[in-house]
Design the sequence.
DNA sequence: CACTAAGTATGAGAAATCTCATACTAGGAG
DNA sequence: CTCCTAGTATGAGATTTCTCATACTTAGTG
């Protein structure tokens, strides 16, 4: 972790994510810009963070470590989003680990100094509630999909979701963790996709050869989502 | 659903869960007492609730319905807890289903009338944040345990958790849903437990014969929890 | 350049879990 | 009392997913 004293950059980032509007008061100006490098922890298992972070650039992942040594990648953090808000709200709460994937820039407010103020600010509280509610809904969706669908189904949905220009190139190791299956099994299913002609491997990435085929497999998974999206359009 | 106009009962229940202290204003007095019977929905999939509920008696379950017809029992609601708070915070959000298990008594505030007021009340907002944060943490725990541990492990933890006086009697159908496995598989594992001498079936319920054996199996699962509980004691 | 860590790949065998079929039982509704 | 539903039970066979072992490749580091 590295504090960055570049007030120009700080203001650009703040403007970009409309940081000031998260609060009812002018507290935003006390935020400190920080940079975290890949592999670093923004919040570490069991260690209460000293700051309330707001991720404005980069990508991180939320882990839960189980006692049997296994870990689960629970969720991804993509900007803009809070990090460490659970611990701010509830001193009792047990921090999960948030580990950096790509360089992360965070706006950080020292908890000790501003906690009181934040907890009395309805604008801020409303934003946190909203954020928590969304996060929770997403988690529930993911978890129940992990249980209700087979890996081929979830993987095809995932490939369609994360591919650009007809190419899929995510790290298998990470994807396996996210989809909650063993690396080995993921590789099997990908091999199947290649055999079935859905994907074609070229060097470092995969090219989508039969999007319709994948759509078809992903159909039910996506249906479960659209469903809700439609509902919220109403 | 049935509105209950028994102001004595209402006040007893309010006192019991300290309802008034959830709010910064005196809004509590506008709450209406309602009763829901088993199988009824407090919040139904895709239908925005008209009230903000606070469950004070009974038991309910949170479902997510998937497009392939499968459903996942995501979480149990036990008093005291909010129901419908997601939908209050975010009009966009897609309601999940909350279905009654045992008779539920709820204190209900009409959203249309008091939404503005609630969203400006820091005391209330703080409580919702806290509630959401806890709920989220629990969901994450459950989900990652569902993935990281085998059914025997989770089931033994579950049995130890829900048994009274050395007896276990939950409905297999519900437990299967909650633990995210097929009814069939659950029965297999229970049969194994009986064979292994952990449980003994008598009529309608099971008697725990070898608690140590179960403890042993549940060991890692519980470790993952205690861990966090310890952490939050600190 | 050699060493190391992370990511990629693949095989073999085992386990966890699922689906489908089929029965039996208890309690509520008519 | 009979019908119906929900819950309980058990078998057979198929899928899904896991663990372990083993290798090869690539990028970074001293």
Sequence:
């Amino acid at each position: 972790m590295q504090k960055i004293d570049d007030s120009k950059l700080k203001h650009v980032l703040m403007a970009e994510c409309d940081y000031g509007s998260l609060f009812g008061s002018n507290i935003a100006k006390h935020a400190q810009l920080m940079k975290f490098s890949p592999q670093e922890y923004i919040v570490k298992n069991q260690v209460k963070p000293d700051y309330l972070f707001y991720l404005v650039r980069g990508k991180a992942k939320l882990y839960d470590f189980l006692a049997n040594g296994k870990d689960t990648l629970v969720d991804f953090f993509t900007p803009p989003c809070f990090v460490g808000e659970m611990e701010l709200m509830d001193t009792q709460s047990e921090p999960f680990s948030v580990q950096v994937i790509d360089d992360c820039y965070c706006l950080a407010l020292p908890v000790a100094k501003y906690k009181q103020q934040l907890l009395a600010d309805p604008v801020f509280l409303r934003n946190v509630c909203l954020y928590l509610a969304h996060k929770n809904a997403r988690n529930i969706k993911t978890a129940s999909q992990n249980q209700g669908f087979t890996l081929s189904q979830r993987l095809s949905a995932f490939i369609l979701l994360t591919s650009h220009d007809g190419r899929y190139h995510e790290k298998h190791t990470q994807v396996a963790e996210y989809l909650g299956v063993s690396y080995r099994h993921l590789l099997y299913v990908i091999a199947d996709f290649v055999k079935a002609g859905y994907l074609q491997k070229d060097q470092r990435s995969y090219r989508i050869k039969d999007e319709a085929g994948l759509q078809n497999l992903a159909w039910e998974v996506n249906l479960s989502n659209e469903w809700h999206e439609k509902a919220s359009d109403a």
In short: The longest helix of chain B spans residues 122-148.
